[in-house]
Amino acid sequence: MPDTPPPCDCSSIDALAAALQTEGYFADRRLATAVFLALKLQRPLLLEGEPGVGKTELAKALARVLARELLRLQCFDGLEQREALYEWNYAAQLLHLRAAEGTATADALEQQVYQPRYLVRRPLLQALEAPAPGALLLIDEVDRADEPFEAFLLEYLGEYQVSIPELGTIRAALPPVTILTSNRTRELSDAIKRRCLYHWLDYPEHARELAIVRAQVPQAGAQLTAQVAAFVQQLRAEPCAGHFQRAPGIAETVEWARALVALDTLVLDPEVVRDTAGILFKQRDDVAALDLALAQQALQASQPQG
Question: Residue 203 burial (CB < 10 Å; 0-12/13-18/19+)?
Answer without folding.
Answer: buried
